[in-house]
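Fold this complex.
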Amino acid sequence: MSWNTGLAFGFAIFMTCLSFTLSGYICLIFCLAEMAGALPFAGGSFGFARVTLGPLPGFLVGICEIIQNVLTVSSILLPLGQSVTLIFNSNPQNEPIYWLIFIVFALVFHVTGVRSFWRFNMLIGSLSLVIIALYLAVSARYMNLTRELRTDSTTVACDGNSIVCALQCLPPVTWMFSGIELVTLASVYTDKVRYTAEYMYIPYIVECSLIPYTSWAEYNTVMIPILCHSLKQ
Amino acid sequence: MIPTALVSCLFTLIFSALCVTVAGSAMFPGSLELSNALLPMSYGFSKAFSISFSASSWFSLSPMIASLFAFMFSFDRQISAMARSGLLPEIFKLTIGANQTHYVSLGFGVVAAFAALLVPFEVQMDRAIYVFYFSMFGTFFVYLSLLAGYIVFHFKYPTLPRSFRSPFKAYGALYGIFVFVVDLIALVGWTPDGRVPLYCFIVSILFAVIYYLSVARYHQAFSSEEQQTMFVAYVINGK
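Structure:
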């Protein structure tokens, strides 16, 4: 499952759902930003819930976040394995082996040290930024919104019932933004001078803001404003 | 920096989401075909560089790897932070080497992620959709709790120093709750295959509650970082 599955319900419905979900995320992120500014805590959301709602809700929020993150790793490994199968035209039964290779690769950087981990993240984040910019640049001359959306309007999904279509479209659209709240986990790093922001904090911010687009190579330009901001500090 | 980062992330995400959605949908083969694509950007790269679809798939690997790194980092931090607060077994806060890698929490998360994939892979690949929906229930639970928490925070700690204030105040949180409740209802009521993950999620929450009441609440404490950053809030809370 990826966010783009929502496009099956039609471009107009997708954009309506996107606007609706976005408005919710804007409220959520503003609220979270205020709490993170007052209570910077490395544990992220569970710390906020523990302080505001009490110990049990805090514990449950922590458990749910762990579930969310662990299963998102699963959701990333799945298209990663499928992509390797596609690139090398190999047997899909080998995909668990590819998952294992990617996991071990990531573990090596987690274990070998903070600096190498964040340097690698900076590198791969920058590379992805270039890719998304390149995508927008090269695809511009092939765009024809009027022609493509004319065929789109003939969709017969949900028996033509727009409300049902919109309701079915909402979960994949939400997936587009899921994970942005994880930025708060980087709270403690902002105070550690010895690991400068360019090594640890910035790549993490970049990645968290890009997480939703695991299958679209969608990387944001967030790196630039954050970098500028951190250099001013 | 965190509030600035969050808000910057949000707005750049909005900008890029709109750009890429419109760009992808406005190109051949159109949005309907795009909805089935494993790697939607491959169409654009394939056409622009006159390369095969499989060759253009290389462009999508790096962000997926980057996301993998970020989420592994996230669950590692969360599991170890909860262990330091006494909410999870102490074994999860064990570290190894000069870099103090939380090898147990990392290992646990990796094994769980792998197991969650292997089961649907062995049974039937399409069932992997359950993993996605299960994750979504967790996501909505977190969002709704955070928004409810903000309302409490707004009224209970109005004098606590903060570097950023939400322009929407408690009304924004209420609206956010409305949006995510609608999303949750859509997931439960109108999404095919949404029920089984819901039951699994409810059972998981029940197990978590039982664990908390029988074990965690007797061991919970405030870790040193919590004492450092949340002391003021706890003091106000205690009044």
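Chain A touches chain B through 162 residues (CB under 8 Å).
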